[in-house]
Predict the structure.
Amino acid sequence: MPRRLTATVLVAPTLAVVLAACGSMAPSPPASASVASAATQTTPPTAGSSGASPAGSSATGAQELRSGPLRAGTYIRTGFRPALVFTVGDGWTVGTATDGFFDVQRDQGTPDVIAVQFARVDGVVGEGGATLPAVNAAAVLAAIRKNPGLTVVDERGSKLGGIDGSIVVVENRGKAHAGVMKVAPGVLGIDAGRKLWIGLFDAGDGVLAIMVGGSIAQWDQALKTAEPVLESVFVRVGPGPSPSS
């Protein structure tokens, strides 16, 4: 039986994946507009773009993402596709690190845990709570709109390396954990009182999701904290070697 993840960490028996407390939200605050555009970066992050000091032997200066606390710097998960790199400042910790899903978190173990997540979408929870195939980004978005456990509070278009995509923000207004999508470690979802910002893009041979999860109570702060990480993301969506090669 697949593990359930929560907004804050890769879950175990009672998890809910996305950022340990991912998911609920109210109308998008003004800050979400800049965050929504953060996933449109088409140039590699520059050294120190997030107050970080990239290190490593690759052309991008990216270090391999592994479990545990992170030093400020630029990172890559080599097995993840599409290949991408991102930069973090001090204070971030890896929640889960697999080739199909990984995330970095702040304020772990608290109700206001913040997570920035990257996933290859294997399936999506839609109408009636059924899990459907992730045919493309449009199909994933359509299913999310019909998910009975989620309320869509914002939606807009976006671009990633010249590829059209969509941003959707959802919240869990119920009392039970709500599944959102199936990813490599299990079913990612959000608990009551959590909000989730989701960017969906057709990248290579699958759907890429870039997400931010946080509590409704501290949503503005969650977006402000996640924004420098999102702005640093560089995704190679076409064929070719990964940034670490």
In short: The helical segments are 31-38, 137-146, 219-232. The CA atoms of residues 82 and 237 lie 6 Å apart. The chain is about 15% helix and 40% strand. The longest strand covers residues 151-160.
